[in-house]
């Protein structure tokens, strides 16, 4: 087992302790979180919620931070994924959870840094022993071709060769994907089952078709902004959260200095497309969650202090500037923040129930002339 945290994040953890003065976290200076979570070594309480950061970064892909993705695990055994950005699936795999349990994905919008690993989850999860269809929920768009259903259908078409070659050679159930598309333009319950209620509402980001989510279960409330600027729907729906995750991109000045944006482009991206640190702090201050989590930024030793300082201008409550593979356990009386210690070399976990043999009738055979070119070297 190894720590999957680079040096820059270790330095950042010490700076975080110095600048944030958070009373609900247990950071121990240079070593980061003082407590660790080892996957598959603890049982959640009957009313406990666990959230794991699978991706906390931006569209600028990097080894240190995958793009947006969050795993929510409940004490009743259910698991939900919110967004599945590029690179996040490697962090999910490190948790060594059977993919059969990882069949529910809720998409906030169709930017690549929020859906970039959906194709890998679709086919890679099937190859890794998922025995049920993958199910995806996501918003509509201004027109049908800008909605989640269109995106998933075209993805399925793009991988027709891949899927066709596997059918009949693998159990077929895990090789299907189902889509539930809902109206992005209204606040509504999009999932309600086994005591779990997931609600979506409009987010303001780029063009029409982005949403934010909340999940309520057993008195616990999880809120995820996706990407958005501050808006009336979020303030109406995100209150009383046990864990509130909100995007917090770079400041205008950081865009200019770190990404070489001209001032007007920096202003538009930082304040019109996204939420800068100063505004993020105002959101947290107004909504007063038990734990606030800022994500969608470069969490590096040279950027984190300014981001935290911007939030702290207006917010003094519990705060985590998110890194990949940080975990929050939420109970009625406690919020526990830890670092995941996981392997870099996971193998697919066994499904809870075997899928059974493949159906040969689904198989697409090689052409006769191609089969005739095969050379048998097996004794």
Core attributes:
379 residues, alpha/beta, Metallo-beta-lactamase, Chain A, nine-stranded mixed sheet, seven-stranded mixed sheet, 27% helix
The helix content is: 25-40%
Topology, number of strands:
16
In the predicted model, the low-confidence regions spanning at least 5 consecutive residues are 1-33
Mean pLDDT: 89
The fraction of residues assigned to DSSP E strands is: 15-25%
Number of helices, counting only DSSP H or I runs of 4 residues or more: 12
CATH superfamily: Ribonuclease Z/Hydroxyacylglutathione hydrolase-like
N-to-C series of helices and strands: HEEEEHEHHEHHEEEEEHEHHHEHEEEH
Shape type = globular
**Distance between termini?**
39 Å
Provide the number of structural domains: 1
CATH architecture label: 4-Layer Sandwich
Q: Please write the CATH class name.
A: Alpha Beta
Q: In angstroms, what is the radius of gyration? A: 21 Å
Spatially, the strands of the biggest sheet line up as: 1-16-15-2-3-4-5-6-7
Could you name the CATH topology?
Metallo-beta-lactamase, Chain A
What structural class do you assign from the helix and strand content?
A: alpha/beta
Query: Strand count, sense and closure of the main sheet?
Result: 9 strands, mixed
In brief:
This protein is of the alpha/beta class.
Give me the secondary-structure topology:
Elements lengths: L6 H14 L15 E2 L11 E7 L13 E6 L4 E6 L3 H7 L9 E3 L5 H4 L2 H10 L6 E6 L8 H11 L1 H7 L10 E6 L5 E6 L2 E8 L6 E8 L2 E5 L7 H6 L5 E5 L4 H8 L3 H11 L3 H11 L3 E5 L8 H9 L6 E3 L4 E5 L4 E6 L27 H4 L8
Parallel strand pairs: 1-16, 4-5, 5-6, 6-7, 11-12, 12-13, 13-14
Antiparallel strand pairs: 2-3, 2-15, 3-4, 8-9, 9-10, 10-11, 15-16
Helix pairs in contact: 1-11, 8-9, 10-11
